Amino acid sequence: MLDTEVKALLQSREPNWQFEVRGEGRNFQIDAISDDFAAMPRVKRQQAVYRLIADEIAEGVLHAITIAAMTTDEWNTKKGLGI
């Protein structure tokens, strides 16, 4: 898959969140941005994103996935630091 395909898939399943996706093949880094994450601990945030692509992981379409799920403020801070 292409990073644009993964992003489109995620966006179609959760249109209220923003996604940034990097990678290729079956290995991707996913940044999910939503203020819905504010009340969630880190592991619950990651689980919420994993649920969106669980079928693709089970089928082997996606393999090595790294997820950073953050609020809008956390995302802006990360971008401001150049991370």
Characterization of this structure:
The chain has 83 residues and is α+β, with helices and mostly antiparallel strands. The chain has helices at residues 3-13, 42-52, 54-58, 72-81; strands at residues 18-24, 27-33, 64-70. The mean pLDDT is 94. The termini are far apart. The longest helix has 11 residues, at 3-13.
What is the correct CATH architecture? Answer: 2-Layer Sandwich
What is the CATH H-level superfamily? BolA-like
Tally of individual domains: 1
Mean pLDDT over the full residue set: 94
CA radius of gyration is: 12 Å
Enumerate how many helices there are, as a single number.
4
- Oligomeric status of the shown chains? single chain
Instruction: Work out the strand percent.
Output: 25-35%
DSSP strand tally:
3
The neighbouring-strand order within the major sheet is: 1-2-3
Q: What sequence of helices (H) and strands (E) makes up the elements? A: HEEHHEH
Shape, per Cα inertia axes: globular
Name the CATH class. Answer: Alpha Beta
Structural class: alpha+beta
